[in-house]
Amino acid sequence: MTQDARVQDFVTSFEALRTEVEKVIVGHREIINHVLIGMFAGGHVLLEGVPGLGKTLLIKTLAEGLELSFSRIQFTPDLMPADIIGTNIIVEDSDGRKHFQFQQGPIFAHILLADEINRATPKTQSALLEGMQEASVTVGGVSRPLPGPFFVLATQNPIEMEGTYPLPEAQLDRFLLKLRVRYPALEELNAIIDRTTQARTVAVDRVMSGAKVMAFRELIREVPIAAHVRDLASTIIMATHPLWEHAPDVARRFVRYGASPRGAQGLVLAAKVRALAEGRFNVSVDDLRTLAAPALRHRIILNFEGEAEGIDIDSLVAQIVESAEAVAVQGKESFLR
Q: How deeply is 281 buried, as exposed, middle or buried, from its count of CB atoms within 10 A (0-12, 13-18, 19+)?
């Protein structure tokens, strides 16, 4: 298959999967696009929004559109790590001899919905860390691979803090993208009422296999990125660090810690998926602009002044990107001179 044919195949498959999700989910086109970007990039996605906005339904519908196994974990304060990854149990064979046998937990699925992840204790939250990073879990000294592709979609409620445990920075950094699910507009709310209060069901077709998802992940890593676009991605990450010599004033004033190198990797990979979804076999500056907030909003830690001023992290990222573009242009002009 030629390169153009592979790109067109991805565009067609991406749009087909999005169409199946949109059979059930009203609006949220950008959220759906970004969830698909996260999946094809090989990362994990955190969805933040108040209850009732369709976060869980979106994830379940996505799983229905794929020929992949799906598992859901409802996180609660009494959930234990073994409830996620599984445990060794004693079983008796036909001869009456007893031995340990590993009983798999719900993490052994292609798509894992971690619902209300911030309701579990840090000990339980950390049970996901190895799986999210290494695509394997260790139980009883034995490393057990997770099925591929492995994709974690987690949800959390930003307004109810009682009985919750905020995700530590190390685990937040494991998520490729953090998405903010907004309230629907009036027309969308009317469509939701019409779809969900009548006696009709919507059938979601399975349009993609796991093997195809893995093949697309390989294709995405082949997408080239021009040197000046790559340099801009690096400059954006560096501009989030207040101690960098070219850091913008907003970063120096309001940021305590900037994004990690994993943030740069996530930004570039997500930009490659967006480029491919639009039929382009190259990454543009606009791809970086569009995905900067989802890729970085959970990786920038505000200082005390930033918290006290109630700084909106998305506005901060937008200013950082604008400053980084100016720095990149100045660097290019000085190089030409």
A: middle
3-state helix, strand, coil in the chain (%, to 5): 50, 15, 35
CA 290, 296, 298: angle at the middle one, nearest 5?
130
Phi and psi for 145 in degrees, rounded to 5?
Answer: -70, 145
Does the structure show a pLDDT above 80 at 58? yes
| Max CA pair span of the chain | 83
The CATH H-level superfamily of 3-79+106-214 is P-loop containing nucleotide triphosphate hydrolases (3.40.50.300)
- Report how far residue 256's alpha carbon sits from residue 167's, in angstroms, rounded to the nearest whole number: 17
CA dist 219 and 131 (Å) reads 23
How far is the C-alpha of 180 from the C-alpha of 158, rounded, in Å?
A: 10
Q: What are the extents of the domains in the chain?
A: 3-79+106-214, 224-336
pLDDT tens digit sequence for 104-125: 889 999 999 988 888 888 888 8
Cis peptide before 149 (omega within 30 of 0): yes
Beta strands 111-115; 70-74: pairing state: parallel
CATH number for region 224-336: 1.10.8.80
**pLDDT tens per residue, range 79-102:** 888 899 888 888 887 777 887 778
Q: Closest by alpha carbon to 118, among 158, 156, 159?
A: 156
Chain segment 264-287, per-residue pLDDT in tens: 999 999 999 999 999 999 999 999
Bridge partners of 114, per DSSP, are 73, 154
Instruction: Give pTM, 2 decimals.
Output: 0.89
The 3-class SS string of 91-123 reads: EECCCCCEEEEEEECCCCCCEEEEECHHHCCHH
146 contacts 135 by C-beta, under 8 angstroms: yes
